[in-house]
Amino acid sequence: xxxxxxxxxxxxxxxxxxxxxxxxxxxxxxxxxxxxxxxxxxxxxxxxxxxxxxxxxxxxxxxxxxxxxxxxxxxxxxxxxxxxxxxxxxxxxxxxxxxxxxxxxxxxxxxxxxxxxxxxxxxxxxxxxxxxxxxxxxxxxxxxxxxxxxxxxxxxxxxxxxxxxxxxxxxxxxxxxxxxxxxxxxxxxxxxxxxxxxxxxxxxxxxxxxxxxxxxxxxxxxxxxxxxxxxxxxxxxxxxxxxxxxxxxxxxxxxxxxxxxxxxxxxxxxxxxxxxxxxxxxxxxxxxxxxxxxxxxxxxxxxxxxxxxxxxxxxxxxxxxxxxxxxxxxxxxxxxxxxxxxxxxxxxxxxxxxxxxxxxxxxxxxxxxxxxxxxxxxxxxxxxxxxxxxxxxxxxxxxxxxxxxxxxxxxxxx
Length: 414
What we know:
This protein is mostly helical and 414 residues long. 50% of the residues lie in helices and 8% in strands.
C-alpha cells in the first residue's frame, strides 16, 4: 500500500515537472506568436528556446561538444530541410538561413537586410559599418577597401609579408623544443596586419602590447555580454579601451608626420593612405572608422525563397554558412581533408562563401589569400611539420582549433 502511494506521488511529481518544463520551454514561442499577431505568411519552423536566454546555451553546447553541426542538424531532423528556421540567439529573436540561395540573397539584398551584429560584438569590435545607413556603409566600404583589394594594390605589401614569413619559419626551425604552431601563425598574421597598417614606424614594444590587448579583447567575443567586474566581457572592454587609446595615439603621430613632411616618398603605409583618402565630396575617414577597420581585419584573421515565410522587422537573420559548407548535398565527406575535391568541381552559386559575397564580401579577402599563398610557398618548399599530439581533440569555440594549439616542431629540409 505504501509502495503504491509512493509510486503515485512520484508519478504526480514527474508529471507536474514535465508540464512545467514544457510550459516554460514554450513561453518564448507563445510570446512572439501573440506579439506579431496575424500575418500573411507564417513564421519559419523552429524553436525559440527558453525565456530570456533563448537557445544560446544549446548553441554553445553544440560547439563545445566537438560536433558543432548538431545544432542545425537537430532543427533539420525535427522540422525538415526547409533551409530557414526561427530561433532566439544572442539576446535576439532570429531566423537562421542555411541554403546557398537564401544566404546569397541575404548578403546581396541591401534593401531588406542590413548588418545587425549583436550589441556585445559591436562593443568589442567597434563595427561602425554595422550601425551605418546603407549609403554610409557603401561610402565606408568604398574608401577602406580600395587600398587593399586587387593585385596592384597588394603588390606593394608582398615583400613585407615575405620577410615576416621567412623570419618566422627560420625562428621556428631553430627552436629545440616543440611550440604551439597555432599561436605562432596568429602572431605571423598579426604582424603582417600591423606592418601593413603602420609599417616600419611601429616599435616592437608597441606592436607586442597591441597584440596582447587584441588577444584579451577577442577572448570575450563569444562570452556572456555581462559588463561587471569578474566577467570576461568586462575585462575585454577594458582591454579594448586601452587598445583604442594606443591606436589613436599612433594616428595622431602619423598625422603630425604628414603635416611636417616627415615621410619618405613612395613609402606610405596603409594608415597613411586611409588618412589621406577622400570621397567624391572631399570628406575623409574619421579616426574611429580606421580603428574599426583594424579591429575587423584582426578579428577576421584570429532552395528558392519564393515560398517565403514572414521574417518580422527587427529580427536578426543569421547566415549559417558553415551548414552549407558541411552539407553532403554539396560536399560529400565534408569533414575529410581532400584538396582533390576541387579538381574540375563545379560550385553551385552560393554554396562556397568563405569570404562572403556582394556588399558583404570581406574587405581583407585578397590580403588573406595573398598571405596564405606566400606562407604555403615558403613552407612547402623548405620545411616539414611534426605534430606532437596527432590525435589531439578539436574545440570549436571561440574558433576551430586543436586543444593543444597544434603543439609541433618545424624542421628545415636540407
